Amino acid sequence: MKDEAKSKGPWIHRFVIRILTLVLAVLIYWILGFFVDDIRSIPGPDYSTIEKKFIDKASIAKQQDVEKQIEDLTRQIENLREKQRIVRDSSRNLQETINQLIELRKLGIQKSIDFSAQEQATFASSLK
Fold this sequence. Notes:
By secondary structure, the chain is mainly alpha-helical. It has two domains: 7-42; 56-127. It contains four helices and no strands. The protein has helices at residues 11-41, 47-54, 57-110, 117-127. The longest helix has 54 residues, at 57-110.
């Protein structure tokens, strides 16, 4: 007892309506493409002219000063980072050298090797 919806009209009319719907969709897509191309072809505003017309010269000069300060601070930060890297590498190398000297001293003590007074003085001064 299903009530099936029977299509009204001959199949050729339904087919033509569907074809015309597709043609209409293609035409709408095509005209939208023309509108978008026309909008893209319009030149944008000239920002330098707008800036000269609406912004006072003191604000422009202040902006340029701030940009210069930012560049200087960025350069200073990079220089400080480079110095930190150099100090970090130097301290790491110093720590490795001290560890090597301590290991040499331990090996000398384990093997009962006596260091000369000059070697002991050099060792003591290198640890300071």
